[in-house]
Amino acid sequence: MANSKSALKRIQINERNRLRNKSYKSAVKTLSKKYMAAVERYAAEPNADALAEVSQAMSAVYSKIDKAVKTGALHANTGARKKSRLARILKKHEATSA
Fold first, then answer.
1. pLDDT (0 to 100) of residue 97
2. Mean pLDDT across the stretch 38-47?
3. Rounded to an integer, what distance in angstroms lies between the CA atom of residue 54 and that of residue 92?
4. 21 CB contacts (<8 Å, ≥6 apart)?
5. Domains, the chain, ranges and CATH?
6. How far apart are CA 87 and CA 49, in angstroms?
C-alpha cells in the first residue's frame, strides 16, 4: 500500500490510464479485424460497394490509431507501422484482383 498521498494518487492515475489505454488498444484490434474482413470480401468479389466498405473501414481504423497515438496509448512509430501494414494488405489484394 502507498505510504503517501502523492503515491496513492499516482496509483489511481496509473489505473485510470491503464484502462483508457486498454480501451484504445482493444478498439484498434477490433477495427483492424473488421477492416481485414472487408478486404477479404473485396478480394473475393471486387466491386464499387466492397471498395467503399473497405475505405470506410480503413478510415475508421486510421482514425482510432491516430487518436491512440495522440493520447499516448500507442507509440507514434507503432501507429505508423500498423497503418502501413493495413495499407499494404489492401494494395496486395488490389494487385491480385486487377
1. 67
2. 93
3. 14
4. 71, 72, 73
5. 5-97 (1.20.58.110)
6. 18
